[in-house]
Amino acid sequence: MKKLLLSGVAAFALPGMAAAASCPAVTVADMQGVASGAFPQQFELAEFQGAASCELAFAANPAIGDLNTRIRGNGELPALADRLPSEPLVVAPYDAIGSYGGQLDALSNATESGTSDFLSVRHVNLFRYSDDLQTVVPNVAKSWAWNDDFTQLTVTLRAGHKWSDGAPFTAADVAFWYNNLMMDTNVIAEAKDYALAGGKPMKVEAVDDVTVTFTLEAPKPGLIETFSFTYVQPFQPKHFFEQFHPALNDQADANAKALGYEGGYDLIKAYYGNSDWMDTPSPMLTAGDKLAGLPRDTMPTLESHILVKETTEGRHYVANPYFFQVDTAGNQLPYISEMDEIYVGDEEVRTLKLLNGEVDYKSQAINLTSAPVLLEGQEKGNYTVDVKPGIASPTIAFNVTAEDEARRAIFNDIRFRTAMSVAMNRDELNEVTAFGLGTPTQYIGFSPRPGFIDAKWSDHEAGFDPDRANALLDEMGLVDKDGDGARDLPDGSPFVVDWQFSTQASSAQFVELIAQNWTDVGVKTTIKEVTSDEFRSAQSSNQLDITMWGKGQPAGSILGDGEIWVPPFDGYFDVRTAMLWAEYISSNGENGVEPPAWVADLKGALDTYQSSQPGTDASVAAAQQMVEIMTSQILFIGTVNAPAPIYHSNNLQNFEEFKTQSYEFYRTYPYRPAQWFLTE
């Protein structure tokens, strides 16, 4: 691939810039005597110029004009000074000032399957975690401030920031996201937990173009955490959507019908989807012959790259010509011009492509069992594999609201869940599937376990004890009545547990070992591999006996988003159970199945935890109560917390070694992929 170097790039000065010393090309590896800013590895423009006693001159990717022509609906580009915010974020690259150009090649399983590692490469949010995974730093937002009791958050945006189509990005776009998308049941049927405080909606108001306030009914200090570590983007382009939003435009439905849609909300969903997941198919995949009449192929973005092509085989992106970040030499980021994502559903084929060096970065859906062959092929394939600790681990749940009443009764019996937990040989799982590198554990909700949570809960009913499992099952009346070696239901009919799983959640070998453990104590378990889409669809429609996916969140994350603590105990893309408990709660008892009393106790403890200042006695006591309730119920069964591979091409520069292989800090997001660049 041909690379374009910075030596031939024209430089521009922002209005009002006086002649002054050029700025040093500061990197994390060599700060050249420039003092660090208020936040690690980045500066506000005035802060950097003051620290370095210089004035930044700005330069752009020489190919950006051509890239812009591939963004349907974008006009001719104005000068760089009119594309950058007047307050761009200045970032220090890790090792070197990069070169422009090239294409980052990515690999996913399918549409919305195994894609979040690639999505995180272009992701932006109001804030982010720095790469220490402890410090929240500004990103899209310039700053934030809380009032004394954490009931009002004031966020200040960057003056002059623009969407990828050149339209101004303002506080109105944040208020629009909350008031007209998140809280409009025609778009999102039920508001997410993170969007509520004390179970009640927030008041989100644009004070002026760069100031937005979040006023909360109850304290929620973890709100900034949600806007730092998740895929959620609390801003959407009001200027684009308001022409189709019935609450904002009397002609919205007519405008949508003229383009072939039933109404305004249908057209909004064609672009935005019907959830807060920012990776739903675009009109390029869903609109068919209506696409040509739509104003754009995809909605405007603030991300580093924008989608320009989508098929069932993959997607292609080009650099956002209005991206708000520059490096310390004044070069507009991102360095990488294009990104290409292909879909490969077969794990063996994905591994072969990785071995051949056809991919620049991959972490999601690479199971640890693939690590030996990938490590062996590093030199030949010109790539590096790092094996790093995980946060979430494969976690299993039985369907406590199964449609079949007999199964529901069994799965609701804590003796059954306890038996299935102690029948599992976690040490064998660790040795065989994690090469002894993992840690057998029970699910406690918090991961990693904070010091204020008693270690006993990580071991609760997690020891291998098939004799005890057999005794508990016998006590329940699940005995082998026909002598075939498998336990039967009390009425004498066969009891067979059907386990449908996706290898995106864990390896087939992992599932096979557990299924054999359970079969060994008489609970015949059949297994079937399905795609992640099939798994999620069946889980959502309450059709599965068993669900499994990675689960567990850091303490800070739970401060802002407590979804894993309330029915159905996670989101669409994760492991859930008790779908009918959730339906009962959301319908105020009109539908579904009433949950047991401990569910309300758990929610009360969560509310206290989220509304308390971290580290206080109230916060610690609430967290301890949450863990005690969740773990003692064994609603979710923990397995082994194991490390996992991270793969990257040796041509990918400024690639910092990750601290974890985890979704929970949003994969690459703390490591600033906009400053990656490619060499040959």
Automatic annotation (TrEMBL):
Subcellular location: Periplasm
GO biological process, one term: peptide transport
Gene3D superfamilies: Dipeptide-binding Protein, Domain 3 (3.10.105.10), Periplasmic binding protein-like II (3.40.190.10)
Domain Solute-binding protein family: 135-257, 316-552
Keywords: Signal
Record flagged with keyword Nucleotide-binding: no
Signal sequence coordinates: 1-20
Domain of life: Bacteria
Gene Ontology molecular functions: peptide transmembrane transporter activity
Protein name (Swiss-Prot/TrEMBL): Putative ABC transporter-binding protein
InterPro entries linked to this entry: SBP_5, SBP_5_dom
Family listed: Belongs to the bacterial solute-binding protein 5 family.
PROSITE patterns assigned: PROKAR_LIPOPROTEIN (PS51257)
